User: Fold this.
Amino acid sequence: MSDGPTIYVSEPLQVYLDDAASKKPAPGGGSVSACVGALGAALVGMVCNLTRGRDKFADVESEIVTLVGASEAARGRLEQLLQDDTVAYNGVIDAYKMPKETEAEQAARSQAVQAGLIVAADVPLEICRVAVEVCRLAKIAAGIGNPQAVTDAGIGAILGEAAVVGAALNVKINLGSIKDAAYVEAAASAIDFLQAEAAALRAETHEITLSRL
Amino acid sequence: MSDGPTIYVSEPLQVYLDDAASKKPAPGGGSVSACVGALGAALVGMVCNLTRGRDKFADVESEIVTLVGASEAARGRLEQLLQDDTVAYNGVIDAYKMPKETEAEQAARSQAVQAGLIVAADVPLEICRVAVEVCRLAKIAAGIGNPQAVTDAGIGAILGEAAVVGAALNVKINLGSIKDAAYVEAAASAIDFLQAEAAALRAETHEITLSRL
Assistant:
């Protein structure tokens, strides 16, 4: 067994599921939310790939080419975040192990814990941002993509929103321990905004999907 | 390369994501919805595994043991449905290839197409049913599980609901082509009911989660 971290996209899907169900610290809800966002992005990519290069959809070809590039970029980013989240809390764990006998040690430890918590909140916050992008792309795909795959675009938006709401919960749990009030306020307002945007996009995409079934 | 179907849980997660994004017929939105439900069930399992066997949570030990069994059963079922959905439409594809020259051939072909469509709708309908169960279990886990993992229970319910709504879209697209009015009516009312139940459970679980953060 190697000492390096498990690279989850290279492992069998069964290993990812089993590790998520175990009491191992990772993958947890943040990584799983990123995975769900990546699955949503993949479905948007599928809709594009079932649309591009077909005479019937020639009028949207250039938009579809742009869309598949954007969805694959979002997927790549979420696949990286799926991995990043599995180590995002390590800084906090390491900081808690620091010595705390002298006042200076206590101050250094507290500062390291706080820095670690901000990293641990930043990763799911970034998952929220990219997953909202998945919702935006899914809405476009539902409107212009091959109607035979329209439910896949609809499901893409549902998964994008689920990833936003899931990752937002993990931002929130970390904010409870962060003392930097400006950071907490900015992050809390960002996740509120991103969740509202995702919910609106998912609802709009759902309407478009039903209208093209 | 073997002639058998790809067993997706045994393949790297990257292969599942890449195949979902490709124009290959599978995995599509139904299988991906089952995968998301399985991820939700895994998170419920994780909450249980971070709760059981600890003195602090001894008063809920027997409920937790039951819960982990139920969540692992739901996960196993959804992992199977993730696979089943990748071949659920094969019967329809095969039926469309049947000869259609004589009236007898046309009748046999039409009957085979209809039978295939019902299989193709039954698989995502079953995904909906099991994913609602994930929401039920997540709600219990959020209420009695280790509060340090409460967001994972909350995310479990979000993913369970996303799986229900996603798979329901794939039931709906198949119902449009099914001529058996009794089947269509029963399936349409089942998915409406399951989606409403999942939405209520997700909202309740979210409230519980926020109250225990």
Summary: The first helix of chain A runs from residue 13 to 21. Chain A has a mean pLDDT of 96. Residues 51 and 120 of chain A are 39 Å apart (CA to CA).
